[in-house]
């Protein structure tokens, strides 16, 4: 019982810290430097193993619908975007983060969705309104996973 | 200078082709299918969509509604009267000025001429009648009117096609123009032409309408979906048909 109370207090404290790190939209603010977001969103640490699951999950990252990730061994990857093999050798962590957060900042006509943005969308289905495709932790987990590719 | 601006402004108008007929037709989505699917589609005995066509043929001869008429009572044998009809749709119905596709045209015939209740949009009966009617134009090239009364519907459909939407912020054109022919996971992105609808989709395990396909695309980009037969979808269907100019009707096609 006491343990449960402690856990509750801890999780409330954690939620408070998280809430403080976010702006009115519910998203953590971020700073773009050149073509990168150098700092981790919300100061969170990403987990590459979780990031790998998110990349493969068709309801979350769903990266394979457009990109090949040879490391996964998954057959029939999409070919809309470039292969992610060696992506960490081509881009810094911060560059990868901006490309996940909002690729349209780099190329307004991009076909790549903005995974951490809620503003300026049209006709969003009711269940997704006001929500980013991925949350703050999921972005950082994906950044951590993609950072393992190609080093 | 003013004259130059004026004459420059005229150029796009003069340069417009009379219709989209001048370009080579785009490839039908069937060309992107496996040999097995293409063979099954071409074989009337093996194409599961033909069950809906056969059901539509039976409905064609069935008396419906308080006027006591069947489709055949007015139209005669569909093999003659419906040949060359489907490839003109969607089209503007002159008395109301509404844009109608095959499904909504069939329902107008039911309510106005047969004095029968309209069929539910995605019902087997309406899909069957639409598939049966379209089948009579098998192999004939699509050629819809986009001028005159159809022009505003065409423009709205085109605007829909190019507008980004949904949480994934994608327009129809970003996939079906910019990336047509490329793989989206295991599937090849088609040019989005609709010349095989109603189509049997293995994913659905049934025949479905083009509007059902629209809803699936909008679901995929996490955008608002409209009702079957909604004006936005009819406009879009007309725009797709204009892109499909010169392509043969293949109803009922088979897709994964």
Detailed description of the structure:
The complex is a heterodimer of chains A (151) and B (256). With 151 residues, chain A is mostly helical. Chain A is built from 5 helices and no strands. Chain A has a single domain (24-146), classed as Cytochrome Bc1 Complex, Chain D, domain 2. The termini of chain A are far apart. Residues 1-21 of chain A have low confidence and may be disordered. Chain B is mainly α. Chain B has one domain: Cytochrome Bc1 Complex, Chain D, domain 2, CATH 1.10.760. Chain B has helices spanning 2-15, 35-42, 50-60, 71-75, 78-81, 102-114, 124-135, 151-162, 172-176, 210-220, 231-243; strands at 91-92, 99-100, 183-184, 187-188, 199-201, 206-208, 254-255. In chain B, the strands form 3 sheets. A 3-stranded mixed beta sheet of chain B has the order 6-5-7. In chain B, strand 5 (199-201) and strand 6 (206-208) form a beta hairpin. In chain B, helix 3 packs across helix 7 and helix 8 packs across helix 11. Chain B is globular and about 50 Å long. Classes of the chains: A mainly alpha (151), B mainly alpha (256).
Provide keyphrases for this structure.
heterodimer; A: 151 residues; mainly alpha; Cytochrome Bc1 Complex, Chain D, domain 2; 35% helix; globular; disordered N terminus; B: 256 residues; 3-stranded mixed β-sheet; two-stranded antiparallel sheet; 11 helices; 42% helix
Task: Set down the secondary structure blueprint.
The complex is a heterodimer of chains A (151) and B (256).
Chain A: H1 2-20, H2 48-56, H3 87-90, H4 93-102, H5 136-146
Chain B: H1 2-15, H2 35-42, H3 50-60, H4 71-75, H5 78-81, E1 91-92, E2 99-100, H6 102-114, H7 124-135, H8 151-162, H9 172-176, E3 183-184, E4 187-188, E5 199-201, E6 206-208, H10 210-220, H11 231-243, E7 254-255
Parallel strand pairs in B: 5-7
Antiparallel strand pairs in B: 1-2, 3-4, 5-6
Helix pairs in contact in B: 3-7, 6-7, 8-11
């Amino acid at each position: 019982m006491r343990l449960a109370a402690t856990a509750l207090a801890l999780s409330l404290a954690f939620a408070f810290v998280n809430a403080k790190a976010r702006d009115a939209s519910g998203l953590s603010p971020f700073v773009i430097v050149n073509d990168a977001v150098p700092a981790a969103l919300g100061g969170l640490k990403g987990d590459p193993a979780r990031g790998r699951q998110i990349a493969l999950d068709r309801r979350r990252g769903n990266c394979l619908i457009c990109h090949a990730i040879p490391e996964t061994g998954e057959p029939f990857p999409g070919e809309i975007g470039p292969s992610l093999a060696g992506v960490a050798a081509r881009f810094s962590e911060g560059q990868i983060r901006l490309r996940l957060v909002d690729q349209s900042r780099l190329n307004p006509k991009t076909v790549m969705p903005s995974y951490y943005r809620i503003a300026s969308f049209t006709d969003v289905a009711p269940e997704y309104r006001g929500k980013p495709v991925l949350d703050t932790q999921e972005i950082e987990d994906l950044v951590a996973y993609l950072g393992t590719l190609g080093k | 200078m003013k004259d130059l601006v004026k004459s420059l402004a005229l150029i796009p108008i003069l340069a417009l082709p009379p219709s989209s007929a001048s370009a080579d037709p785009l490839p039908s989505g069937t060309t992107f299918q496996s040999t097995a699917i293409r063979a099954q589609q071409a074989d009337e005995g093996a194409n599961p969509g033909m069950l809906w066509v056969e059901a539509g043929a039976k409905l064609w001869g069935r008396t419906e509604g308080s006027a006591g008429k069947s489709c055949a009572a007015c139209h005669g044998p569909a093999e003659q009267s419906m040949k060359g009809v489907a490839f003109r749709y969607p089209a503007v119905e002159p008395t109301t000025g509404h844009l109608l596709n095959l499904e909504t045209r069939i329902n107008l015939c039911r309510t106005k001429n047969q004095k029968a209740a309209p069929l539910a949009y995605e019902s087997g009966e309406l899909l069957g009648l639409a598939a049966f009617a379209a089948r009579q134009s098998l192999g004939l090239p699509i050629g819809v009117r986009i001028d005159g009364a159809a022009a505003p519907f065409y423009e709205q459909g085109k605007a829909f096609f190019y507008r980004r939407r949904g949480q994934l912020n994608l327009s129809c054109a970003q996939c079906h123009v910019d990336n047509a022919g490329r793989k989206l996971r295991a599937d090849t992105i088609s040019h989005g032409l609709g010349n095989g609808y109603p189509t049997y989709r293995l994913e659905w395990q049934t025949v479905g309408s083009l509007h059902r396909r629209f809803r699936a695309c909008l679901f995929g980009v996490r955008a608002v979906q409209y009702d079957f037969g909604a004006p936005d979808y009819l406009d879009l269907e007309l725009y797709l048909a204009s892109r499909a100019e010169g392509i043969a009707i293949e109803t009922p096609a088979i897709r994964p």
